[in-house]
Structure formats: structure tokens, C-alpha cells
Amino acid sequence: MSKFLKNLINKSTSQKTITSSTAYQDDDEINYATEIEGSIEGSSVYGAFPVESSDSTDYSCTETVKDIQLIFEGENKDTFVLVPGLLPYDTIELPFFGGIIVADYWRDVKEQIDDPYITNPNSFGSLHDRAVELYYQIKGGQVDYGRSHSRRFCHRQLGQTYEGLVPDWSPENPIVLIGKGYGATTALHLQHLLSTNFFGQHTSGNMVKGVICWSAPHRGSTLPYYLGLEPGSKCIVNPISILQLLLSLIHLICYFSFLERFFNFNLNDQWYLASKSEGGEQSLCSALTARSRFTYFGDNFLVDWSVEGARTRYSGDEKDKHILDPNCVYINYISTCQTWKSKITGYHWPRLSWRNLHTTFISFILGRYKFSPDVEQKVLRTASSTFWPNDGSLSVYSQQPPPHQQILMNIALDQRLYDPIEHETTPGVWYNVYVDDRTQTFLFDSEPFLATLPLIEHILKWSLIKKFNEFLMRNVDDFESFYVNFVEYCERKLVLSGQHEDNIDTSSKSYNTTIIAEHVEKYTSDKAGLEWIHKIETIEILNSPSKMFYWVKKYQASLENGILPESGSNDKISGNPFTATPCMQGPTFVKAKHKLTAEDYKASVI
Fold this sequence. Notes:
Its main location: secreted. This protein is α/β, with parallel strands linked by helices.
């Protein structure tokens, strides 16, 4: 029987439908917007397959590489360090009814990892400053931002002193960094500083066993430009903008020491943002107008958060680029499917979900914000529509790793079984995991905000609320269908009336610019994806006797009836008996299952 099952597994895996995969050349002058439309929404980018990078490095599966698996429990459990992004918090608790927890930033991760180390670098600093603080918070010692860096940006060289979360941190005792958003890019920059021995303590990149990113702005975000950052300036902010208001608020909080202790921005020791009476350099007027070295010199979050700042991290000299360490595991979770694309204007609209209400406005802005042709040419180096698909706070395109770093597989995760974090993975290359439903992930399976509140969970159990919720769940497709059709109907009327003709999707039009690189498609082998999926399915079945006998029994029954198992049809088996459908229907060679996209309504919209 074991031989029969082995043949069945081998044959069923080889029978998977595999579509041609495409990876696009992407260097400092990246191609225009058709790249994102073709590679994410319309092709098999969601399949598990190896992708060639722009540096043409060969990472074929025949190369002998020792796979690594992260250990989450037991005596040999890895050391996990959590790195927060912008505006981090631990827990937000309301002083009512004995304390109601509104949000817990790391609740999803702490449910899977016992007692992880939580760091707290300054909220609005540059990647360099945050990575340096992160190092000393983990290792211990007084923060040293570097003499040349401090002189260049005119801030103090030395900062706070920390005891160290992991004092014995070394290449023999590596850690695993888990970062969300801006914290993920901070973790990667820390590894870059370690690999270049910035700290002068014989550090190396293999002091980090793994880097796990969730919704990381690898290629920057367009949101700062909407909030008031002047394109092309890197650090100049429009004086009448939301970003200017935010900077003024930051300076006022740092000016008043009691507020700074409450919000804990950790900027005073470095930038002298306290009042003059407390040893700083700020006057009340300069605090109100956000005039300081922190704002003017560009050593802050605005630069590294923007598209231009992100590009400088991978388009400069080779010595400044972060090269992936061959002994480190890299898993990049890309949050998707929070928007749908209108086929009338090409804009991306937020989906109907109460879980996304707090990011609906940002999603609406990101899904339609359009730059001038000059900004697209000189700043974005791509069309504005490239950045329209988003997860509510960050564009899907922004979450893709830098073009000079190797991607081994792109995986559409609609079953938790295929989450690479629970399996042995090849170090030194990226695993891109496109996540439609975060409950299918191992680490990020719950919402940190509102959705996991005990109070809300209790309310949802009330009889009337439960029935109403069940009614919404049964009709959610109909509601969203009506929503999509209504929006596209309004857009069609506006376009036909001539009021918004300039809003018609232009992603398919040719741009008359001088710096567009030739659009090169590289077709790659899917051998690595086949081998990886086959290994997971084989281990899963062989380690579970109940599943093994279930599939064997079902297969034998199908042979007796002459019907393909799980085919859902009455087609008879002909020829080779091993033409049945796969034992386990893996999602990794199939386009991601989006709910109610514009394409789903193509037949219903005239």
C-alpha cells in the first residue's frame, strides 16, 4: 500500500495545472504600470515558483543549500524579537468596567510565541537611527549612532543605555526578527549594519537566523506625498498639510516633558526637542511650526517611508545595498485583496468589511491618488496606478522586496498548510507570501485591533446580534456585488457626462517619456515550486495515518466507480488509472482566490 500511495502522490503532483510564470526586470529605472497589473492581478504571480532577479543570480533548486526551519516551542526554541512600526503601542486599555483592552499590537504573534522580546525604537526616526537603537536594546550598552552619521545630520552621537534583552546575542546564538510595517524594514536595516560591522564588535549578518516581515514598505509608500511631502524633495513638507500638522504635534509633545514621557517618542535625547528651560533647543514658536534639525536634515521617517527614500536603499553603490545573508531565512507576507478595481476608471476601492473601517479612508486615497506625469517620470519611475492596489495602509507593490534581492517563490496562501514559516525553507532568498485571509497564516491569524476584543466577541454571541451577523454572512456577496455595481454605475455616468474624462484608466496607454526601460519578461521554471509542494504534501500525508487512509479509501472508491475523486463530474477514468485529481488540492499553482473583484462582475456589468 505504501508503494501505491507513493505512486499516487508522485503522479497527482505531476498532474497539477501549472501556468507560465513571469518575473519582470526591475532596476533603478523600473517599468511602467502594466507591470503591477500583469504580474499581480492577471497572471500566475500568486503561484509558487522561482523568480529570476535583476542581477541574474542563479538560485536553481539543484544548488546544494541546507534548509532551515524556525523553532517556536520546546527546549531549542529560537529567540524571537518583535520590532514595531510607526506609532507603535503595546496595549490600549480603557479604564471602564475594570479595564477594556481596545487594541494589542502584538496579540496575534504572542498567541503563537511564548514570551517574545518586544523592542521599542523611537517612533519617527530614520531606519538607521531605529536600527542602531534596536541593536543596543537587544545586545545592551549605550546607543552610538556613529560619528560620521551624527555629524552629517547634526544630532547627538550617544543616546540611552540599555541592559540588553539578549546579552549573549552572537553568531552562535542568533535571533529571529519579526517586524510589522516600518518595523520590518528596520529589522532588515539592522542586519545590513551587522553585515557591514557598523558597530565594530565583529558582527555579521548570520547573527539573525530569520527575518519575518508583515506588510513592509520595501519600496516605499505614496501616502507621505498625499499628506504633504513635496515629491522630489525627500524632506520638504507643505506648510499647509496633514503632515505639517503631525510634525507640529510631535514637536509640541517633545517640548512638554510630561507629554513626552506619556507618549514615549524617544526623540529628545537625540534631537534636543525639549524646551530651553529643560535643556533643549526648542521655543514654543519653533515647536508650533516644527522648525528643527529633526525636520530639516531629513534623518527621519519621512525620507525612508517615501518612494524616493526606499529607492536609495537599493539603487546606490553596491556597498550600501543590503545583500541577503546566505544563512538567514526571509519570509515576506504581502497583505492583499483589501481593494477591488473598477473597470470603468481603473481606481481601486476599499472592500466592505467592518474589520477594515479604520483604514477605509487611507485605502480610498491610496487607490486613486494620481501624480503628475513629471512626478511619475522622475520620482515614482512608474505610473501612479502601480501603487493603487493596497491593503488599507500600504500598496501591494510597495510590499515587494527590493529588485536586487532574490525571490525564490511567490505563494498564494489560502491554506495554512502552505505557510512556509512552518516548514523548512531555503535561506538567503525571499519567500513572498500573498495573504488574502490572515487567518490562514501561522503568526498573524488574528486582528490586533477591535476584532479580537473579548467584549466584542461576547456581544457577537447575543442571540439577536448572532442572527443578524449570520444574515450578513449569508448575503455578503450580494451586498458587495450591489456595492461594486453601484460604484461602477456612478463612475460610468460621470465619465459619459464628460465631467471626469481624465479619470479613465490609462494604464494601457503608452507614455511618451524618455527613461522607460524596455519591458522584459523572463519566463522561469517552476521546478522549485513543484518540489516544495510535493515535499509538504508527502510529509503531511505520511505523518497522518488518518489522512493517508482517507485519501487511499477515497481513491479506491473512485476507481471502483470509474469516477475521478473530487472532480465533481461523472467523467470516467480512461487510460492510465493514475489520472485522478491530486490528493490535496494545493493553492500555490492557482491564481489567488479574490472575492468579488471587478473581473467577477464582468459578465453582469454592461
